[in-house]
Amino acid sequence: MNDDDVRLGGMALENGVLVHGPRYWACAVRSEDGRLLVASDGKSLRSVDVKSPILRGPARVAEALAVLPALKRALPEARLPFLEPRALMAMAGTTLVVRSLRSSGLTPALQELAAAFLALVPATLTLKGSDLAAYHGAEHISIGTFEHGEPRPREHERCGSHILGPLLVTTAAGNVLATRLGTTARGRAFARIGVGIGSLAVATEVFSWTLRHPSNPVSRALAWPGRELQTRVLTAEPTPDQLEVAKAALAECLELELRDSD
């Protein structure tokens, strides 16, 4: 394996960056006293080994979630964004609004479309104007520069925000279908779980298609919401110190991936 064979992903934290490789993860954070702390380990769940198109998308989400408990054990100083008070409050508020929408007089299609857009509120409130947005930019710059072999901007073509367009469409359509099929509240709940898994699977495959066909008009339209969110809300220009943190996580992850291949 060489550098070109390593497909990387990442996640911004409130005080650092988590970088995913196919088989390893590495995280670097800046502690409150200014120290650069790094931790890494192998993945217990590896989506790279999943070949089924139906399971690939859910497996990637499960893989990313499985890393987080190990990360907190290895690096207690890491601050996960969705555990911050403002994120928890935004999620609770969004849940209440969505529940009221689904008991309103709006048509099922409008209810689900509104609910899909409201799902973006917690991430928007968490990232806007925060260190998290700057670390998100640092993550993209470090990974993009490595992949392209030249300095890159803070936007990245493989950011998870680009899956939002396909996911909004598939989730809204799927939930309308689930509402019509479910005759009881319990039946609708199970239908929505199935829709969530199916929507993620379909959206992941559509996202992969857009990456392979970047000049296609449909591809550009589907990528537009994520691109705009990246530019306007989800990323910010990082400081040199924040870039140093992202580069440390990247270097550690690459070292493990390439050493494992020798």
Overview of the structural elements:
This protein has helices spanning 53-74, 85-102, 108-118, 121-127, 131-148, 164-181, 185-212, 217-234, 240-261; strands at 9-12, 16-20, 24-30, 36-42. Strand 2 (16-20) and strand 3 (24-30) form a beta hairpin. The longest helix is centred in the C-terminal third of the chain and has 28 residues, at 185-212. The model has no long low-confidence stretch (mean pLDDT 79). Helices cover 62% and strands 9% of the residues. The chain is of the alpha+beta class and 262 residues long. Strands 1-2-3-4 form a four-stranded antiparallel sheet, with helices on both faces.
Number of strands: 4
Form type: globular
* Individual helix count: 9
Q: How much helix, percentage-wise, in residues?
A: 55-70%
Mean pLDDT: 79
Task: Show the helix and strand layout.
Blueprint: E1 9-12, E2 16-20, E3 24-30, E4 36-42, H1 53-74, H2 85-102, H3 108-118, H4 121-127, H5 131-148, H6 164-181, H7 185-212, H8 217-234, H9 240-261
Antiparallel strand pairs: 1-2, 2-3, 3-4
Helix pairs in contact: 1-7, 2-3, 2-4, 3-6, 5-9, 6-7, 7-8
Provide tags for this entry.
4 strands; 62% helix; single chain; alpha+beta; 4-stranded antiparallel sheet; 262 residues
